[in-house]
Amino acid sequence: MILKMDINLLFKIAAIGILVAVLHQVLVRAGREDQAMMTTLAGLVIVLTMVIKEISTLFSTVRTMFNL
Protein backbone atom coordinates (compact mmCIF):
# COMPACT_ATOMS: atom_id res chain seq x y z
CA MET A 1 0.00 0.00 0.00
CA ILE A 2 1.53 3.27 -1.11
CA LEU A 3 0.45 6.50 0.54
CA LYS A 4 0.35 9.67 -1.49
CA MET A 5 -0.64 13.14 -0.53
CA ASP A 6 -3.08 14.87 -2.80
CA ILE A 7 -1.37 17.76 -4.60
CA ASN A 8 -4.68 19.66 -4.55
CA LEU A 9 -4.27 20.12 -0.80
CA LEU A 10 -1.03 22.02 -1.35
CA PHE A 11 -2.66 24.19 -4.00
CA LYS A 12 -5.58 24.96 -1.68
CA ILE A 13 -3.24 25.95 1.15
CA ALA A 14 -1.19 28.14 -1.19
CA ALA A 15 -4.32 29.82 -2.56
CA ILE A 16 -5.62 30.54 0.93
CA GLY A 17 -2.22 31.94 1.91
CA ILE A 18 -2.07 34.25 -1.09
CA LEU A 19 -5.66 35.43 -0.58
CA VAL A 20 -5.10 36.10 3.12
CA ALA A 21 -1.85 37.96 2.42
CA VAL A 22 -3.54 40.22 -0.14
CA LEU A 23 -6.51 40.89 2.12
CA HIS A 24 -4.17 41.62 5.01
CA GLN A 25 -2.21 44.19 2.99
CA VAL A 26 -5.37 45.86 1.68
CA LEU A 27 -6.87 46.12 5.15
CA VAL A 28 -3.66 47.44 6.71
CA ARG A 29 -3.35 50.13 4.05
CA ALA A 30 -6.98 51.08 4.66
CA GLY A 31 -6.19 51.57 8.34
CA ARG A 32 -8.12 48.55 9.57
CA GLU A 33 -5.40 46.67 11.40
CA ASP A 34 -7.84 44.83 13.68
CA GLN A 35 -9.77 43.37 10.76
CA ALA A 36 -6.50 42.50 9.04
CA MET A 37 -5.40 40.50 12.08
CA MET A 38 -8.77 38.72 12.26
CA THR A 39 -8.52 37.84 8.56
CA THR A 40 -5.07 36.39 9.13
CA LEU A 41 -6.27 34.36 12.10
CA ALA A 42 -9.27 33.06 10.16
CA GLY A 43 -6.98 31.93 7.33
CA LEU A 44 -4.71 30.20 9.81
CA VAL A 45 -7.63 28.37 11.42
CA ILE A 46 -8.93 27.23 8.02
CA VAL A 47 -5.53 25.86 7.00
CA LEU A 48 -5.01 24.16 10.36
CA THR A 49 -8.35 22.38 10.12
CA MET A 50 -7.41 21.13 6.64
CA VAL A 51 -4.07 19.85 7.90
CA ILE A 52 -5.60 18.26 11.01
CA LYS A 53 -8.01 16.29 8.81
CA GLU A 54 -5.07 14.95 6.80
CA ILE A 55 -3.14 14.03 9.95
CA SER A 56 -6.19 12.22 11.28
CA THR A 57 -6.40 10.26 8.03
CA LEU A 58 -2.71 9.42 8.32
CA PHE A 59 -3.12 8.09 11.87
CA SER A 60 -6.13 6.01 10.82
CA THR A 61 -4.12 4.51 7.98
CA VAL A 62 -1.21 3.70 10.30
CA ARG A 63 -3.58 2.05 12.78
CA THR A 64 -5.08 -0.04 9.99
CA MET A 65 -1.67 -1.08 8.67
CA PHE A 66 -0.38 -2.20 12.05
CA ASN A 67 -3.71 -3.54 13.37
CA LEU A 68 -3.71 -1.28 16.43
Characterization of the model:
By secondary structure, the protein is an all-alpha fold. It has one domain (8-62). The protein contains 2 helices and no strands. The longest helix has 34 residues, at 33-66. It is elongated. The model has no long low-confidence stretch (mean pLDDT 91).
Summarize the structure.
By secondary structure, this protein is mostly helical. It has helices at 7-29, 33-66. It has one domain (8-62).
Question: What best-fitting shape do the alpha-carbon axes yield?
Answer: elongated
Major sheet size, sense and barrel closure: none
From the alpha carbons, calculate the radius of gyration and give it in angstroms: 17 Å
Which regions have little confidence, pLDDT < 50, spanning 5+ residues? none
Distance between the amino and carboxyl termini: 17 Å
Order of helices and strands: HH
Tally the helices.
2
How many domains would you count in the coordinates? 1
Number of strands: 0
Tell me the fraction of residues in β-strands, as a range. under 5%
Helix fraction bin: over 70%
Which structural class matches the secondary elements?
mainly alpha
Mean pLDDT reading: 91
